[in-house]
Amino acid sequence: MKKAKLEPLRAPREAGPKPAAEAAASPAAQGAYPRVRMRRNRAADWTRRLVAEHRLAPEDLIWPLFLREDGAASAEIEAMPGVRRLTVSEAVDAVGHASQLGVPAVALFPYVEEHLKTAACEEAVNPENLICRAVRALKAAVPEVGVICDAALDPFNSLGHDGLVEEGRILNDASIEVLCGQALVQARAGCDIVAPSDMMDGRVGAIRSALDEAGLTEVGICSYAAKYASAFYGPFRDAIGSGGALKGDKKTYQMDPANSDEALREVALDLAEGADMVMIKPGMPYLDIIRRVSETFQVPTLAYQVSGEYSMIRGAALNGWLDGEKAMLESLLAFKRAGADAILTYFAVEVAERLKRG
Ligand code: PBG
């Protein structure tokens, strides 16, 4: 590389003759160099730590995990190296480990066996489904960990969509009825938070009413309020096995990546309907939305570092193209800087282990 010759920054000078005394003084005294030196606070590790505005802690993280039936479906997920589908008993052990590292909560997603997927999504409301069994096992074994369940029909839908489909159209209100049933079985199984990720209009209010009428007033709602129709969900659809069935895209219910004001409207509506927390998803391409939402509403704001973001970092690291650990930590710190209170990340356990090592 060519070395640039460094010229000290010169302060503007008054016109006129130079006083003799000044000519003799050091360049610094003449104002030839900057008085304000930003680098002083960056000079040592201790100053950098002292003036850091944001810090990542295990307590900021929510670990999304994929579940599978015993003996069924491969554990490996091709598009997400390093992430495995866990059986319920493996999940109990893994979540126990995460808890010891200080991770406060997990979000559960099921790989549903093909024969259980239908267009009416009956398995979503089965109180014995994989998710409900996992919730019961986790709340029995590691009750201190918050359990978040996704409310959306895609894992159970033979058509791969988050809502019911009729003649190629999503049925908003009919989907909400199934989503309420899904939220109820999850809440009765003992989950702490229901997280509707389906983006149907009005589902937060309907789920809140269904939970309250069933006496489940303490179960919270974290709405995927600003969820964009994103290419970054690709690996997730591989992980839960919904990608093959999905025809077309989710643009009639998920948000247009071109929009930002609309996200504020989505968040306002979900809060009015009773959401306790709101989420922005994906994460890194939408840091501007996280910032706007956190500044506008001052409510618990979550960011989801989605599967595609994970796989980009992991994939590049596996190829030796970037330092995966540093990229992981930097990407997550960016969410905190943008204003997120917590982050869903597939790196949660690795980050917590790394932070513990110091
Ligand atoms: C499904 C759902 C998706 C994700 C979370 N819940 C995918 C989708 O909307 O197609 C994405 C998570 C990820 O990519 O990590 N309702």
How would you describe what is shown here?
By secondary structure, this protein is α/β, with parallel strands linked by helices. Helix content is 37%, strand content 15%. It has twelve helices and eleven strands. An eight-stranded parallel beta barrel has the order 1-3-4-7-8-9-10-11, surrounded by nine helices. Strands 5-6 form a two-stranded antiparallel ribbon. Helix 6 (203-213) links the parallel strand 7 (193-196) and strand 8. Helix 5 packs across helix 6, helix 8 packs across helix 9 and helix 9 (287-297) packs parallel to helix 11 (324-338). Bound molecules: ligand PBG. The site of ligand PBG has 12 residues, from helix 7. Ligand PBG binds at residues 150, 152, 154, 162, 197-198, 233, 236-237, 250, 306-307.
Salient structural properties:
two-stranded antiparallel sheet, 37% helix, binds ligand PBG, 12 helices, alpha/beta, eight-stranded parallel β-barrel
